[in-house]
Design goal:
This protein is α/β, with parallel strands linked by helices and 263 residues long. The chain has helices at 21-32, 44-57, 74-88, 111-140, 160-180, 199-202, 207-217, 229-240, and strands at residues 12-15, 36-41, 65-68, 93-96, 143-147, 186-192, 251-254. A seven-stranded parallel sheet has the order 3-2-1-4-5-6-7, with helices on both faces. β5, α5 (160-180) and β6 form a beta-alpha-beta unit. The N and C termini lie far apart (45 Å). It binds NADPH dihydro-nicotinamide-adenine-dinucleotide phosphate (NDP). NADPH dihydro-nicotinamide-adenine-dinucleotide phosphate is lined by residues 17-23, 41-43, 46, 70-72, 97-100, 121, 147, 149, 192, 194-195, 197-199, 202.
């Protein structure tokens, strides 16, 4: 069955980090477009909220499969894929979106702890989930969309751990595109600029402070605003669809021109 940018009827989509922010809105958009969607994160309450929205917009009365899982844990990744295949028997699209941020100088006393946490969450999980899913994606001639950041493409102050993690995802994507192209699997990466989500709050910044930062930085960007989750969801759906069937290994920068601004 073909999938254009707004028709994912019959497609099975697994989206990590879909209890909040970009992943949640992406799950809702896939749902609206007729897909069978697996939503996952660590927080069941947040997942239940997303589940309700998905059910409301589904054109076929579908419910998402909800799996509570921590992608930094090997067993959780395995259970996530097992449950997906157990329920639907196949996988068409893997969206590796779960991610966390961190900041700090190189003489930060917690540097190794932060390094391990960010790499386990932002990189190791993506490598392992691709490893677990590749045979299923080969069967469906499916595709992978990884979520990186503009921070994978240029340096930002005191953000080297996060920048490194996203840069790794960018090159991992290109390498996999080369390896998996002959199997009929496309692999692409979206690089968002700042997007209004709970990303900063998850890192310990207050909601008020985060809103203040978005208000300050948005007007400095060429398009005059920060992103909204739907901006990134639209890019993900495009790359996952047959509209981009000749596209693999690309960085799709969706940032309102933020990458060209001073930081
Ligand atoms: P949010 O903090 O709003 O959402 C992050 C999601 O990731 C949540 O669903 C969270 O679920 C999940 N998550 C985090 N850690 C884990 C974990 N260990 N196991 C499972 N799930 C986890 O952030 P965004 O929506 O903004 O971020 C989504 C992606 O976009 C990230 O990869 C981020 O790096 C990237 N990005 C974001 C930008 C922004 O400005 N917002 C800019 C550029 C890139 P739960 O809490 O339930 O575990």
């Amino acid at each position: 069955m073909s999938s254009n940018v707004r028709n994912f009827n019959g497609k099975v989509v697994l989206i990590t980090g879909s209890s909040d922010g970009i992943g949640a809105v992406t799950a809702v958009e896939f749902f609206r477009s007729g897909a069978y969607v697996v939503i996952t994160g660590r927080n069941l309450d947040k997942l239940s909220e997303v589940e309700k929205v998905c059910e409301k917009v589904s054109p076929n009365g579908l419910k998402p499969l909800v799996v509570v899982a921590d992608v930094s844990q090997v067993e959780d990744c395995e259970r996530l894929v097992d449950k997906t295949i157990g329920k639907y028997g196949k996988l068409d699209i893997l969206v590796n979106n779960a991610g966390i941020g961190t900041r700090g100088p190189i003489d930060d006393p917690d540097i190794l702890e932060k390094y391990e946490k960010i790499m386990d969450t932002n990189v190791r999980s993506v490598v392992y989930l691709c490893h677990l899913c590749v045979k299923h994606l080969e069967n469906t001639k499916g595709n992978i969309v990884n979520i990186s950041s503009v921070t994978g493409l240029r340096p930002f102050r005191e953000s080297f751990l996060y920048c490194m993690s996203k840069s790794a995802i960018d090159l991992f994507t290109k390498c996999l595109a080369v390896d998996l192209g002959p199997k009929g699997i496309r692999v692409n990466v979206v690089n968002p600029g700042p997007v209004r989500t709970n990303f900063m709050v998850a890192r310990g910044i207050s909601r008020e402070k985060a809103d203040e930062i978005y208000q300050q930085i948005g007007p400095n960007y060429p398009l005059g605003r920060v992103g909204e989750p739907i901006d990134i969801a639209n890019a993900i759906l495009f790359l996952a669809s047959n509209e981009s069937s000749f596209v693999t290994g690309i960085n799709f920068v969706s940032d309102g021109g933020a990458i060209f601004s001073a930081h």
